[in-house]
Design goal:
Blueprint: H1 3-16, H2 20-36, H3 49-75, H4 78-87, H5 100-121, H6 124-137, H7 147-170, H8 179-195, H9 204-209, H10 215-219, H11 221-242, H12 250-266, H13 270-289
Helix pairs in contact: 2-3, 2-7, 2-13, 3-5, 3-6, 3-7, 5-6, 6-7, 7-8, 11-12, 12-13
Protein name: UbiA prenyltransferase
InterPro entries: Prenyltransferase_related, UbiA_prenyltransferase
GO molecular function, one term: transferase activity, transferring alkyl or aryl (other than methyl) groups
């Protein structure tokens, strides 16, 4: 492979690098869990692990392509370049690996490519909705002017990723998703909307430079930390109860939830906040796994 090809591949990697923990890994887990849950969440009466693993590359490809569109749309904006020069100076535009105009041209190619891919892989509706939410988040400045709109758009975007992951992992064209999946995704969207402000704690300085109205900058970091700690503990209990889990199955979710709550209140450096944000991503992966911990189907 030529040096130029490697350069461009690395550029694409740098665009999406920081969102693997937020999108690719958790949503891949969600897709696998839904597919393996069988009649609880899908029309597949007896899912086989080998079949789900065979669909795994399709799921990851769908997630990565749609993620690429979202992050390029975001990172090419002037305000994002200013923010990333502080918070993530290794990204392609702050390091001048790519210009904003070149990123725009990349999007012109990426959007039809993603549409065609979604027709083949599944999740077309989720992909199109994700583009709408991305446009509202980035071009319409929804991420910057109001912290609540920002949180809701984050929740809507991640929910679209969840639907796409579930459709592709279950087997597009072979099986369908049950109503229960969409109810569960809707609940998870509320969870995300009420806790995702945790991601803004390590990025306060960069957000201040671009005059972004995040919760820590509007209400202060202390109020934000308490809001995260309280809601994390509430949802840790609620989601486990929602699936009627045995007491022992509460432990993973509760332990990570307690760790996040304590770290958020006690460890308040930028590095500590970055670590707590990563724990939140792990906590979401555990929430995504809860349906597999059930032993009997539940009718919603």
């Amino acid at each position: 492979m030529s040096n130029q090809a490697l350069f461009h591949l690395r550029t694409l990697w740098l665009f999406t690098k920081s969102d693997f923990k937020t999108v690719i890994f958790p949503q891949t887990v969600f897709g696998i869990v839904v597919a393996l849950s069988g009649p609880l969440l899908t029309s597949n009466p007896a899912p086989k692990t080998c079949e789900v693993l065979r669909n795994l590359p399709k799921t990851i490809l769908w997630l990565w392509l749609n993620l690429l569109n979202e992050v390029v749309s975001n990172q090419r904006l002037p305000g994002s370049i200013v923010e990333d020069s502080v918070n993530k100076p290794w990204r392609p535009l702050p390091t001048q690996r790519m210009t904003s105009n070149t990123a725009r041209k990349l999007l012109l190619c990426a959007i039809p490519t993603i549409y065609i891919a979604s027709l083949l892989l599944g999740g077309t509706e989720a992909s199109m909705k994700l583009m709408v939410f991305s446009h509202m988040y980035n071009e319409l400045d929804g991420a910057n002017e109001n912290w609540l709109i920002r949180n809701v758009l984050n929740a809507c975007g991640l929910s679209c990723f969840s639907v796409g992951a579930a459709v592709t992992a279950t087997g597009f064209g072979d099986y369908t998703l049950q109503r229960e999946v969409y109810v569960w995704i809707s609940l998870l969207a509320v969870v995300i909307a009420t806790t995702v402000q945790i991601q803004d704690l390590p990025d306060i300085e960069g957000d201040r430079r671009r005059n972004r109205k995040t919760m820590p900058l509007v209400y202060g970091h202390v109020a934000t930390r308490w809001s995260v700690s309280i809601t994390i503990m509430f949802w840790s209990i609620f989601c486990c109860t929602y699936w009627d889990l045995d007491s022992v199955c509460y432990l993973p979710c509760m332990l990570i939830g307690i760790s996040i709550a304590v770290r958020t209140l006690v460890m308040q450096t930028q590095d500590a906040d970055e670590g707590t944000w990563k724990l939140w991503c792990l906590w979401m992966m555990i929430l995504y796994s809860l349906p597999l911990m059930r032993t009997t189907p539940r009718h919603l």
